[in-house]
Specification:
three-stranded mixed sheet; six-stranded mixed sheet
Length: 256
């Protein structure tokens, strides 16, 4: 298996493990990533997910040796596998943190942007290199970039195919933190620990609100809240949160 999952203290770490090829993602690995995220989503003991790459790189994107060939049918098959993988990250209802070192190219940058939080090494090298091989963006690259950036800046990054450092990514709002490479995982785990100790259902509902917001009017957003909050007040974590506040102690949330 080229995708490994480890679990500890409510955090699942999903690692793209093909360092000898800079963690380039094969067709089979797309299915493995999808399965890993689905398993983490369904595991009640997992309350937050970290996505990272083995060795010194996050991922060089799609394995170029598998590109092209096989006609339209195989091209459509590759896209279907890519999109199922991308959706498995974007639609996971638990917080996802991308811990990025080294190269993060093409579909792999799309996966990182589909996460909730990106922690990048200062010298990480992000790139959407589609123009360099005569392809249009995929993996939701254009959609995701325009969620974070103005349209002109998103177009400049796609049209130029240039590298964006981890430091610049943080300045542009494409990464929340930019830290020395050796500190990337510790920073990601620090954030994950805070999420793992949070009320899981509350974060899940907040994530659904953020996902829905771009297509909603203000009134629709308020109506969406109105369907959620009556459910949330019935959770054990709500009862624990209000009781701990009254008792002036730290809440012990269980994710229920």
């Amino acid at each position: 298996m080229s995708i490994e999952t480890t679990k500890e203290n409510g955090t699942a770490i999903i690692t793209i493990n093909r360092p000898e090829r800079k963690n380039a993602i094969t067709l089979a690995m797309r299915t493995e990533i999808e399965s890993a995220f689905q398993a983490a989503q369904d595991d009640h003991d997992v309350r937050v997910i970290i996505l990272t790459g083995a060795g010194s790189d996050f991922s060089a994107g799609a394995d170029v040796s598998e590109m092209g060939g096989g006609g339209m049918r195989n091209s459509l098959l590759r896209m279907r596998h890519l999109h199922r993988m991308a959706r498995s990250v974007a639609n996971t209802q638990k917080p996802v943190i991308a811990a990025v070192r080294g190269v993060c190219i093409g579909m792999s940058w799309s996966l990182a942007l589909a996460a909730d939080i990106v922690v990048a090494a200062e010298d990480a090298r992000f790139q959407f290199a589609f123009r360099h091989i005569g392809l249009a963006p995929d993996g939701g690259a254009s959609f995701l970039l325009t969620r974070y950036l103005g349209l002109q800046r998103a177009k400049e990054i796609i049209y130029s195919g240039r590298f964006v450092s981890g430091s610049e990514a943080q300045q542009l709002g494409l990464a929340l933190h930019s830290v020395p490479s050796e500190d990337v995982m510790s920073k990601a785990q620090e954030i994950a620990a805070s999420f793992a100790n949070a009320p899981t259902l509350a974060l899940m509902m907040a994530k659904r609100q953020f996902d829905a917001a771009p297509a909603q009017t203000y009134d629709q957003a308020l109506d969406f809240e109105a369907t959620m909050q009556p459910l949330m007040v019935e959770t054990e974590d709500f009862r624990e949160g209000t009781l701990s506040f009254k008792e002036k102690r730290k809440a012990q949330f269980t994710g229920n």
